[in-house]
Batch of 4 targets.
Target 1
Amino acid sequence: MSLLTKFDLKSMLERAESPSVSIYIPTHVASQEIRQDPIRLKNQLRQAAEKLEQLGMRDADVQALLEPVQSYAFEMNETSRFWQNQSQGLALFVAPNFFRYYRLPIAFEEQTVIGDRFYLKPLMPLFVNDGTFFILSLSENQLRLFQATQHEMAEVMLNEVPDSLAEALQYDDPEKQLQFHSTRASGSAPVYHGQGVGTTDDKKNVRRYLQQVNNGLQDFFYEAQAPVVLAGVERIQSMYREISDYPHILETGLEGNPDSIAAQALHHQAWQIVQPHFHQAEAKALAAFGELAGTGQAVTQLQEVIPAAYYGQVGALFVQIGHQQWGAFEANTNTVTLVDDQIPEATDLLDLAAVCTFLQGGEVYLIDADKMPVDGALAAVLRYPTHVGQTATVNS
């Protein structure tokens, strides 16, 4: 799985230039059906080329822009291994001097969107509802961090974070604090042999180790703002909770020695803990919307929601799954313009609202039409009341 972070979304928005091409296709995992996937990509590239030509781009410029993707649109060549290592969906982003792709656990609908920024709303399920979470597996002999969704999990390679208690303390005086040795080939993690579990020296060593882990992970966790499930024996979990001030460590953890638990089992058990957390957050946000109805902080009109999202005033945003509303937002005048169909100069205003809300610390919930708090495609709980913008409807 190609892990996608909030930082990635920010960097894509900041680095992209016009025209920005966003391509989404469903893919298959290691089966005969993978032969369909490069054909899907080829079809989307054809659509992208046609849309770019409608914008007035010359054919040579179109080909140059899409060239980084072209080689992946062929089934039997040196990139065929690329198609044999897919997840449920593939997202590709191309702009002048920019190309990035992600294999992701979402079965996307096939679509290509051209605009002055990347189209990112299809990625939101990774961060909201059943979104991204972390599993921090802690023991004296092994530290592992996993980033996961409901469907998949991948280990995060850590820099400047000790991967064991022995590594954290290896520069201490071995006569006084620690002995360690490697039971595997050279370069493997040392094995901790302390002063006895529960002794004063052992507690000090473990605390110092966990403090180094916490210091190394603070920026990473705060950037992601995702829930963390701890895995480890009770005394280590308890000590880490005392040390860390990260607010999204879940109260329930996976108890026992995690070194003997396979990653797949950790993932399954952690999801049982995280799933209610995601659902409770959505229910709480919906309840808040109902309580604030009529106060000016529960809004449903595009001319109110879009400017509020753009300026970071939305605390919780509800977006109907599968719905799009094309148009434009002019920040200088807070004007929202609507169009009936997707045209090259239009953007999906629901995508704009979702991305702006998420990147500015608000919560985004993608909801089926029958669960929306109102009869509409967009609703928001504002952090504080906002002024109403202007709106115009244009039939394209």
Note: The domain at 293-394 is CATH 3.30.1330.30 (60s Ribosomal Protein L30; Chain: A;).
Target 2
Amino acid sequence: MISITKRFRTALIFQFLIYGLCAFGQVATAQSSIHQSIQARTDVIFDSLVEIRRDLHEYPEVSENEEMTSKKIEDYLLSLGLEVKSNIGGYGVVGILKGTKEGKRVAWRADMDAMSTDLPDVVDFKSKIEGVRHICGHDVHTTIGLGIANVLSSLKENLEGTVYFVFQPAEEMNKGARGMVADGLFELINPDEIYGLHMSPYPVGTIATKSANVYAHFTIMEIEYKASNDQDSLIDYTKEIMRSAQTYGPNAKFWNNENLFSPEFGVTSPNTIYKDYVALMSNFAIEESKGRVILRVLVDASNKEKLNEYSALIKNKIETSRYSEELISVKFNFENGMPVMETPMNDPELTDATMKSIYDIYGKQSIIPLYGVPPLQFSDDFARFQKFIPGVYYFLGGSNPDKGIVAMPHTPNFAVDEEAIKFGVNYFSSIIVERLKK
């Protein structure tokens, strides 16, 4: 992930004003009794969940070192009477909740690692581990996962099927999901569907998502040539064709981060300009050695197909130019470089069904549909689980301007309105219950 500019944070606050924060109620029209029970149970345990979150925040652990966090999760799940598997792919933990009858199998994933950072903590319950902080919200993710386990355990007699709670390590290193799979996760559990969330700067009380990918595909593109006497011209030519092949010119609204949340053409607008694009997101790096010259640049695309199309286009232009004899390769994955970063790919049917459930149970104000993909370097290895199982990845709102809280991960002032814990437990407990019914 990357740092977000002050202008971007201003744009987010503008978006909050558009959606409003004035009454994100949880009153459904014609709720079933089980969803009322979910809300009642969440209210009962909410204060204890806040305590859990603050404890996790005060004692953060970086990727692949989540030993203490893992033990806390294991003990909590055991206290609920769940079957627990631990030390999966490192410090991964799985809790298994079986309903009264056989039925569908649904998995919920929560990541739990913190990050190394020298940025000072901004909350009263500050990290007590020097140089480590939950600046991405995984302490909240873990807490919500435990809260869902608590709520659904209290309703066990009314559940058919099985719920798996997957607590994943090392997300920040993009290694934890892969490690759990390699360590036999899907030999221990066999879910039909999988779901997960990430904290986001949307208003507290809201969920945002879309079908297909929710983050841009990005990678470093590398073009390698044989050295030549006309090298400066070759480099200038390559830069020019790559820049001109971008979707938007240098003066387009696309490049102004304040437009990301524009109601007319931002990511939440059906008329968004943030779809079907390719964009260069860095300056060109030039390396000359051993009779070769290599150009590298970071490329963002709204989907993987656009990324591949762009690569093919650039290769074709060079191969049909006067520099064709000098070309060695055009590629993404190169030694010691950055592979194409995976983005969660949401199953369209499950996305529509689960968002409709929240709409029906908790009301229209709870939903923020997304139509575009921001051109920013975010990823989540939840995508690794989705290679095996269909599922949906959601953004849970955590911001509250009235409290001065903007929940943009990896920014210096990142914080979360803890009411988001209550919304997360309610919304996603209800989603799981509804999916078990199907």
Note: The domain at 217-331 is CATH 3.30.70 (Alpha-Beta Plaits).
Target 3
Amino acid sequence: MDIVKLAGVDAVKLVMMIVQAARMVRHNKKTCQQLVHHVQIVGDLLEKLQTPEMMQHSEIRNGLNELEEILREAYMLVMSCQNNNYVYHLFTGKKKADQFRALQNRIDSCLQVFPLISHIGTSDRLDKILEIIRHPHSQAERELPGLFTGGPSCDTRTEVSGEVKICSVQCAESFKFNLSQLADATNNFSGENKIGEGIFGCVYKGQLHDRVVVAVKRCSELRSAQDLEFQNEICFLTKLEHTSIVKLLGACMQGRERILVYEYMPNGSLNAFISGAMDWPTRSQIIKGIAEGLHYLHKHSGLHIIHGDLKPSNILLDINMKPKISDFGLARTYNPAVDQEFTDRIVGSMGFIAPECRERRLFSVKSDVYGFRSLLLEVISGQRCFSLAKGKYGDDHGVLNKRVWYLWRAGRLIKFANLLPGDESERMEILRCIHLALLCVEENPEHRPTMQEVVHMLSCQNVVLPKPQCPAYLWTEMARAHS
């Protein structure tokens, strides 16, 4: 079976033809888009599973043969859409749409089986990681740094087992750092050089031999969760390039050490400036920069990434107070053809977790929109969103949600800001940002704007904003108050 040439056409051309067919069947656009996405998944599966070891198993061979047959049928269907005129499509559109849906269902059935196969390879990698952790001086450990050797560019592959993402990483020599280099750069990780601390470990300011100043994040205790976050960070940040995303300069994976090296941000995290003396132009710059970075992650990075843990400590500020999104340890990819996906665990921080994720284990790009609203309210008000978030009933609404909603209803929204606007234009921009935050915090994720819409609303002051509804979690609280 030749996965490069399938039925006389290469995979890229096949996908482009299916896209063209999707345009012809306009009333069934979503089904056709899902088919395009799943054809791409099938192509990746064929490439990854078609190894001599895998092909020894008859069940895998049979499954791949079935997938190949489905792709051949998809190719023939696309050709039939291309090789006929408009009148023909006008009368046969419904029949073609039904045929596309049938192919979609057959692909769905096959893809439900293949995660089990992927799980086998993932389990093998997990076993190796655990073996290294249990035996620090084993031969496997001495071979582990070999993951960072390779060609001139980074090669990252992500496999999914349940909710665990494992990235096998091969990077250029220029990406590698050794432990002695980083110890020298940070004065042996001295307390004087420590500039931050989180769940993963401590962050130190360091200076390399070429006088480049860097931020060095060192894992404090190697557990499977930290190792997976380490791999996740490398997997995503080596592929991202945006002015609002922090740059990863390199990594060290030596023995039990897991260390990441980033560009240094002189002003640290947004956490230190929330309640500080920032004028509105600076706050506005931070808000717009975060929005643009999220929009890039969701739509323009090519990876379809949900950050999953937006909060002030994960927003870094450069020397000009421009924001950069950091900490991708809990980030995940999403399927753009699906509105929401299920997760078996809640990730995020108090006051920033969307209700659908907290209550129904569903996540989407709208989960990040909810987190963005929390940042937006904190930057505008200079107050912590989660300081009173865990109330009598354990609700995660956040005190700011409640306050901004009651100020909105009372017509006194400007009192929410912790600074006086310089002129009328600043006043209107502040009110608009608070209004936008209320849209981002709505209970139903379908009613929240996308980050693309948020960027547009922030940059175009003449765009009319819809009327907001009651913020998430407050319906339940108000119902309890009246019961």
Note: The first strand starts at residue 5 and ends at 6.
Target 4
Amino acid sequence: MQDRQIEDPEGTGVSRRQLAKFVGLGATLVAANSVMGAGPAAADDDDERQGQSRGNDRARIWRAGDHHVHSEYSGNYDTSTNPPKFIKGADAVYPIVTNAIMAKNFGLTWAMCTDHGGPTHSKVNLEQAYPDLLRSRRLVPEVLQFWGMEFDAPALDHHTLMIPHHDGEAQQLFELESRFAKNDPFPADPGRDTEAKMIEFLTAAQAMPHKPLVLAHHASRSATGLGVYGQDTPKEFRNGNNIAPDIYVGFEGAPGHQAGPLNGGARGGYGNHPTYGGFDQMTARVGGLWDSLLGEGRRWWITATSDSHVHWTRGGSDFWPGEYSKTYVHARQDYADIMDGLRNGRIWVTTGDLITSLDLTASGQGREAAMGETLTVSRRNRADVDIEIRFRPLNGKNGNGERPEVRRVDLIVGQVTGPNANLGADTNPTTKVAARFGPRDWRRSGQDYVIKYTLRDVEGDCYARVRGTSTDEQEPLADGKESPWEDLWFYSNPVFVRIR
């Protein structure tokens, strides 16, 4: 142990010499490259020009991040003692700062440590993990590192609980975890694992002056078939979003654990019913649950994460943060603005660095709106809506040492018809692929490709969203054991159109 303290004074899991290379002057992450090949961080040096800002805020660009990353504080517990003894590193193995270093290497500018809860974990978070987060923030200032956890949501599967960056962030998480996380009490309390307790949690969070964010993780991992849901159900999403519409705002479109097939497992750890192109069935099925929620006019967003525990080269099922999946947020390099972007749907996601920038805008009658926004046009005039899709391919190689190519882009449109009396509804029959575009349909504009399309005579409220792929699949197929690098997709969040 003494040797480690001398060689690794900050407890990062890498040596002093390596740490100097990693965070000293922004040099390439040599040790990581020796394991898996060069990452994409150096491939696109023009990230400050990606995603040209809209409106008056020119500091907002597309910033890549990951809100679901595990550290050695996802551990185990010796419950033979009271209170239980926490055992570090039993589930995930990397120090918080190691994840931040790797996130930086793979081009992320923000990330979040989301460790598992457990009996009295709220105290472990407060007394052990949080000081390590503060140290990691000092060592890797280029990556904004949010505080939060993988919340043991009552009656549901895990969720991101993201705490706003402020002086009382540690105490705020302690309050929420100790009061509401279903696994925090010791001895266990069955009353914590009810939907009523989840509603109580969201009600309390909604009333806080510093409002957190809540996003569902791997929402269909426990589903046993297409539309046969497990722990997470459409009814619970609707009820939670009704209670806290600016806190409970979405789910992972693409779950983590995408490297599973590289070690013989399933993508996402979806052992009961598979993902589709790496995306959860709730997102991937056109006219499915996501479209059902959007068809009610709900502001319900998707993200993509690593869920990193153990890298696949060490026998795990994971990629490093940013190595494969990225969630891009249109924001300033500022904690509050990134959280605002997540809350308000200025988000798109990609796997395998298929693209590095994506803008979706709807315009008409002199007005314009982008992802997460609403375009309002008058019915008195011809209600044509012009759609512009602008994307930028990777200028370099991705984490697998390849330069992927976009083979097709789909424009998906659905009607917004208002609240559904059936809280369990999981389809929107109005949602269709309005148009498919191949390389002959887009034109080059600088570093970007641009697609233009007009929705003619729009008669009612609707939304538009975009997806693209490196494959020739008309719809994403159920995933098997293929390499995740051969099956890449990107998805936008929607832009809404209101007819008045």
Note: The CA atoms of residues 221 and 270 lie 5 Å apart.
